[in-house]
User: Fold these one by one.
Assistant:
Number 1:
Amino acid sequence: MRHSGPDKISLRLFLLFAFFLLTGVLLSAWYEQPVFLAIPALLLFAGLAVVNYRLLYFLLFAFIPLSVEVLIGGEFTLKLPTEPMMAGFFLIFLMLVLYKKDILAKEYLTHPITALLMAHFLWMLICLIYTINLEVSVKYVIAKSWYIATFFFMALIVLRKASDFRRLVLFLSIPLALVTLQVLMRHAMLGFSFESVNDTVRPFFRNHVNYAALLSVAIPYVFFIRLNYDEGSWQRRFLNFTLPVLLAGVYYSYTRAAWVAMLVAVIAYFMVRYRLSKYAVLTAAVTVLLLIAFLAKDNRYLDFAPDYSQTIYHPDLEGHLQATVNFTDLSTAERVYRWVAAAHMPADRPWAGVGPGNFYPVYKRYTVPSFRTYVSDNPEQSTVHNYYLLMLVEGGVIGASLFLLLVFTVLFAGERAYSRLKSREDRNWAMAALLSFILILVHILVSDLIETDKIGSLFFLNMAVILILDRKSKRESEESGA
């Protein structure tokens, strides 16, 4: 049987891909390095990018719950397959902008969210001049550019109609539901014990905090977007099933930040619905300023230093929660230890900070010994566990101010879009994106998650969705006014 011209080409391409796939598997097995599997993956990525980069974009979100950290060469970790895909989408974005100059609508480029996001990124570039470690900062900025290009600008390009939004949620929620189910089943076999929770979320999550954060941040999308499908449709039934699964995952993650964030999301729903965001932001700002003034006066913060001998890890949930109430929980005390150091650091470098990614090499000289805990040696080289403080330390007052302005602008734009949009489906999208964004803002009070693929992806996606809906609401408002 003879093959036609297109069939011959397809067969040759298939055989070529099969050859590289086999080569990658053999090399990975021989050298015990999974990085060689990137060879066929890159070829597949390149082929899909040429044929249908929009489908490839949705696939990226399907891989977010499934990505794993792989140690490369014993020196650095790579999240596979998401980070190589992000690098690829950065190149795709550049090519699209170069060859299709009108690929991004002018109304998107001139929006305050875009302007502030780019101002924030530009300030990071300026901080490279003043950084204490240029190599670390350059790596940080390159990674940040991948996130912004992939999850913000590419979202503005790909998400054009309602079906695109729906498809994205399904691509994310199906693997997330499957991962959560297997975590719950493994955890159930261990009696849902507190001490085993970190083991059950691996290898897809570093720890229970990252796991619970992704689940909680995805819940608003699952809750509201299911309402955009017809009753009885498989999509509606699937999302109806997924919602309690994710809620159970959050509950059995035993993550205090996720529990609090879910409560905040309920309050935030009514805040958005009744347009109270400005008052909430003002109240939060005044509260923070008063708290800082109270702690700073006569070094009153020293009165809250923990007892080193009593600040220990508690292997059971009851002891963990009781220690939290008594301020003797190890993880909380260690956070305070780093927060105190971070609060002292801007005095020496107030405007540009120590440079992107440079908290760890510097912070120990600013720590206060009375706040030290059993894990203060910090062998994993983690950072301050408060993203707002991190922005202040690494980007100075200007960097932190630009970040806060960006956050406030997104909040106000989301609320404005929700109040002006006409269709129920669009309003559901606005509420889902805004609540997901608020949940992230709560999580980063005690964690540094924006630079992770699990949360950073949705952080920038939420901004893009809110921008799209804000512009749509403006057009609808102008048309109805006319």
Note: Residues 107-158+255-282+385-481 form one domain.
Number 2:
Amino acid sequence: MNVWLIKVGEPLPTDSVGIHLNRNGLLANALIQREHRVTWWTSSVNHQQKQQRCLADRVVEVHPGYEIRILATPLYRRNVSLARIRSETTVARKFALQAKLIEQPDIIVSSLPTPDLCASAVEYGRHHSIPVVLDIRDLWPEAIAQLAPRVLRPLARICLTGQYRQLRSACSGAAAIVGVTDAFVDWGLAHANRPRSEMDQHFPLGATHQPPTLHEQEESLAFWGKYGIRPEMDELLIAYVGVLGGRNLEEFKSVIKAAEILQDRDIPVRIVLAGDGDKMSYFQKRAAGASNIVFPGWINKAQAWTLMQCAGAGIIPYESSFDFCRSFPNKIIEYLSAGLPVISSIRGVASEYLDAKKCGITYPNKDASALANVIQMLEANRGSLGEMSERAMSAYKHEFIADTVYGRMAEHLEKLTMQADVVMSDARQYAVNGKQ
């Protein structure tokens, strides 16, 4: 089976040695292990570091049967900006042109975002009678419109009319819609204006928890030792690893305030906010009076693994936005893979899961006092924290091991390919509605 994967914004296996792969990279590995061929179409922009991988189109062979086609596109500095829209539009246009020049695939998996790139993939699939699977990872463009003040959201949707039209075209023309949660699949089907079929399924984000080498572990322990962080430390360590950006500004301000409250109460707690972003310096200045917060900056995969071995819980201070309420962030799964109970402020799918599995606690958004009380309660009840840790690891092993999740997803693509004539016929019945 010759598979095209279309996804921008993810780390590539060629970015650096030992890079932490996300969904697309792990799915590619699963397909290669099943002896399929993979071509990954992506952008030259390293979304995480806001740097260019290259200044001209490039084809990189990861190993025989697996290549990455990098399309040179303009750099952007902010995740939500006109510059990013221009960059993504360039990717879609270049894909439409260059896809004609190479061997056709048996099936295409195109990830949302972005709507224009997905629409280009579906149009290519329609023209060549190739099934396209839409993998919904984020609810674009509605997630963008939701960032506007409530009174301006109707205007934002008008400005995004073109992207909504492309979304409907992509959803209605896709042979199947999959996503990271059932809520995401249902959202895509609503835009496709069709009922769910057996080919429309959700596949959660999967994670690996492979230990780094002993040498990397020693180096990482030395790195964290500079911050007074070590295994079996007396203080309860709460860890965050991710972007320190403006979208969740108020939630991170609540974390800082909670740290100050715990410091005033003399509770032995340390909070590590690891990562980088456009608001990192702002958060550092705001936390100047909280000696129990550590900002180590960007950390590598081995350092993240070691941090989670030292931590007692992981925290996700995100707003309960339209998209987050329907999603199940990869960060939760990364914490579960380390056996870390999750402290989260996201209502919806995530809170329902943490409550059902009893492996995490959800606190109210923007409520620093409630967060401080949760952390204090966990620190005072280490036995209960240990039981939550066991349930967290159990949840990961039963539902989120990457090899299992993406093995099932690869098997689903194989089934789809074998039934391509049927699913393509069904997709054509709805494609017209999607263009209206």
Note: The mean pLDDT is 93.
Number 3:
Amino acid sequence: MDDEQARRDGPQDQRRAIVVGAGITGVAAAIRLRRMGWAVTLIDRAPAGDRGAASFGNGGILARCSIVPVPVPGLLAKAPRMLFDPDQPLYLRWSYVPRMLPFLAKYLSYGSEAQVRRIAAALAGLTGDSVDEHRALAAGSAAAGYIQTGDYGFLYRDRAQYQKDAWGHAIRAEHGFHPYEVDRAGLLERDPALGEAWTFGAIFPDHGWIANPGAYVAALAETFAREGGVIRRAEVEALSGDGRVTLAGGAVMRADRVILAAGAWSARLAAGLGLRLPMESERGYHLALKSPASAPAHPWMVGEVKAVTTPMDFGVRLAGIVEFGGLDAGPSEAPPKLLRKAAARIWPGLEWEAEEEWMGHRPVLADSLPALGAIPGAPAVVAAFGGQHVGLTAGPRIGRLAAEIAAGRTPNADLAPCAPDRFR
């Protein structure tokens, strides 16, 4: 770091870290390292909580039980039909297909039963205590007020439809997630606007959600700054294995450790360190319903429409959709239309005052697990990215583990499934 930056960061004998990426994982890692006594600089080209980040636009659920990945047995056979059905939540930008075919083949190869069980076990280790991790991270700060706790429901038309999900629920049960059942009357107590078609729910207790994810991450960043951390707005162009960080314009910063937590943009920076990963942006969408006439008491996963619905401080957010189209293309028109159609199916007749559409980038590695750990050949750099659909849920834990690794501590967790070089 330059002399001015060093003076801001603290005493010259204090160990220094740079965290690249101000999403939930990066902010969590920065806070944890700062609380360990490190001088920490958090770098991102946009403010924490910016609407362009996945940490802004996610479904907001602290989905402890979301351990079953998207590729499951049978998906390969269904995928072609899903791609050509406008009512299915899987989209491809056809111009991007040639670039992503190698990734897609590898991604689908992890859909066997054995692989899904292995991945679920690893994800359970990252998501199981997510509510407690968020509470510990936000304790005593304004961010704590955004954390809500309660049930997380899977919504079905009837018991027969629920039983079609038996395989996934069995995997969740193996890791301690056991739902209780509610009938139509029980559903209406939780969500009076539900349409008549919905008659059965599987309710997972002890979950949580964030009432405004963007504001929550911004509040955590403010906490980091109040605790002595430094936030720098800049675009990172390259990393070096010895702790050098090159910014756009050529400025170079230096630290004892660097944590790479730049979400879907992390693979480009990792490639400069010799780590080439099968990683893509799984573009996600949300539709925010502002000031609706009513809102559910807790989040729903609605498998039939492949969307989650979450009560938030501005109304209700519907999120979902999987679109492969890279990092550079703008939003597509079809996904928000599908979410609007889903809202009408879930809550026929519900009115709201305004809508807001959003598209962002989920960082997805081919096996649906994050890259977490020291990068081989780059001793000063720790990877902490790839949270896919559970990025918000697991972000504080992934950030804490990355901070422990950076600080030279041995985490109390089996991180072998998440080793950054596991695809070599």
Note: The chain has 14 helices and 19 strands.
